[in-house]
């Protein structure tokens, strides 16, 4: 067995079960690109501060580029015995370029490294989600434009309330999504402070330049408190909270469209391309994508609850429990992006059944309020 990077003082190797139980490479390899970005910024800073020679830095940067190429070409060997993404990349770099690679971890711990990677990853993920939100908003606006002037029954308590324009209703979702995007951007601003230099928890006595790495990685500034930097995960709690609210909005949209596609309502028909059938009932055409949008919101809430529960009993500073923070975040992002994309696709593939809607309008006294207002107006002429 290869000696672990941290194995200098260890006399025994870990058992296979422990190795398998504690590894995170099976999921945190997702962070590879951001890990490499962080390492490049760190190496450049070490060289500028005289903590590493220029030539060592150059071979590190070249080696890291080659590793990224290999990963993206599927030629990189991820090894569970190398535990996580940080040690996999560092060990391979050492195999490739030798001694200089060992200097890369100067004035750095995996504790501040993983946070740096994770924040960079989340920043990109937020941009991806915001783009998907915009895409759905566009689809809803188009649907509104295609159905200008179409009057539908508006509901409260799921009882007929007042007539409303369909675009009025569709644009309600557009507003909700706008706030969802706003929450994500707020969250990104608050998370955008650089943990690098916090090291394990207490910073370092070496003359590093945290402002240089922070700026190179596009952060607003370095984090102020090193203990805070490596312990908290509030940025992901906030991120997954925002995702949960988005998921709930989409779930409600899903519920409405599923209802409207039913025989009882019959207000909309999804095209075959966004419907699925039944294996036993030949007549069935089900709006499954929107049912799953509703259903998958459960996962997104579950991911948030996992994260909250994970952190609730942790003392300062870093605890290994925190390794469990990644999968819920990856899952939440993947799920929400899928929900947004499928909702947009569904919106592009439904027809509102004008005739059916028109025919339904006389039922339920939809104009009662207008009539009452008319009477009030009429009476007020007497004053
Ligand atoms: N894989 C770890 C995580 O994701 C990286 C940090 C490990 N630090 C440590 N001291 N064991 O949290």
From TrEMBL:
Which SUPFAM superfamilies does the record match to this protein? Answer: L-aspartase-like (SSF48557)
Spell out the GO cellular component terms annotated for this protein, sorted alphabetically and separated by semicolons.
cytosol
Q: In which pathway does it act?
A: Amino-acid biosynthesis; L-arginine biosynthesis; L-arginine from L-ornithine and carbamoyl phosphate: step 3/3
Q: Which UniProt keywords apply?
A: Amino-acid biosynthesis, Arginine biosynthesis, Lyase
Q: Which residues form the Fumarate lyase N-terminal domain?
A: 8-302
User: What is the E.C. number?
Assistant: 4.3.2.1
What is an example of a Pfam family matching this protein?
Answer: Lyase_1
Keyword Nuclease, does the record have it? no
Root EC class: lyase
Which GO BP terms apply?
A: L-arginine biosynthetic process via ornithine
> Which reaction(s) does the protein catalyse, per the Swiss-Prot or TrEMBL entry?
2-(N(omega)-L-arginino)succinate = fumarate + L-arginine
- GO MF: argininosuccinate lyase activity
- Similarity comment text for this entry: Belongs to the lyase 1 family. Argininosuccinate lyase subfamily.
Q: What is the protein name for this chain?
A: argininosuccinate lyase
Specify the species.
Populus alba x Populus x berolinensis
Q: What is the lineage of its organism?
A: Eukaryota, Viridiplantae, Streptophyta, Embryophyta, Tracheophyta
């Amino acid at each position: 067995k290869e000696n672990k990077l941290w194995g200098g003082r260890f006399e025994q190797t870990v058992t296979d079960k422990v190795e398998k139980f504690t590894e995170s490479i099976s999921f945190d390899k997702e962070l590879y690109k951001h890990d490499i970005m962080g390492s490049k910024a760190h190496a450049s800073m070490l060289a500028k501060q005289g903590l590493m020679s220029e030539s060592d830095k150059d071979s590190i940067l070249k080696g890291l580029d080659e590793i990224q190429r290999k990963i993206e070409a599927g030629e990189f060997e991820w090894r569970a015995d190398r535990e996580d993404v940080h040690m996999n990349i560092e060990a391979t770099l050492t195999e490739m370029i030798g001694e200089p690679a060992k200097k890369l971890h100067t004035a750095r711990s995996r504790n501040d490294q993983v946070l740096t990677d994770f924040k960079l990853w989340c920043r990109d993920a937020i941009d991806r989600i915001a783009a998907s939100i915009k895409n759905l908003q566009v689809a809803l606006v188009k649907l509104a434009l295609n159905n200008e002037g179409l009057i539908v029954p508006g509901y409260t308590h799921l009882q007929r309330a007042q007539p409303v324009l369909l675009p009025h209703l569709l644009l309600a979702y557009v507003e909700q999504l706008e706030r969802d995007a706003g929450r994500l951007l707020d969250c990104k601003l608050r998370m955008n402070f650089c943990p690098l230099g916090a090291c394990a928890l207490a910073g370092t006595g070496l003359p590093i330049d945290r402002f240089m790495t922070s700026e190179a990685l596009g952060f607003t500034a370095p984090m102020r408190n090193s203990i805070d930097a490596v312990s908290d995960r509030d940025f992901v709690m906030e991120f997954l909270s925002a995702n949960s609210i988005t998921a709930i909005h989409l779930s409600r949209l899903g519920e409405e469209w599923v209802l409207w596609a039913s025989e009882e309502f019959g207000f909309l028909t999804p095209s075959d391309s966004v419907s699925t059938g039944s294996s036993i009932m030949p007549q069935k055409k089900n709006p499954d994508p929107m049912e799953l949008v509703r259903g998958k919101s459960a996962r997104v809430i579950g991911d948030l609850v996992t994260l909250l529960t994970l952190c609730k009993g942790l003392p300062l500073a870093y605890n290994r429990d925190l390794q469990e923070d990644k999968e819920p975040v990856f899952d939440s992002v993947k799920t929400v992006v899928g929900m947004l994309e499928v909702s947009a696709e569904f919106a592009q593939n439904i027809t509102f059944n004008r005739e059916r809607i028109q025919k339904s309008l006389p039922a339920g006294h939809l104009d009662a309020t207008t009539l009452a207002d008319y009477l009030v107006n009429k009476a007020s002429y007497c004053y």
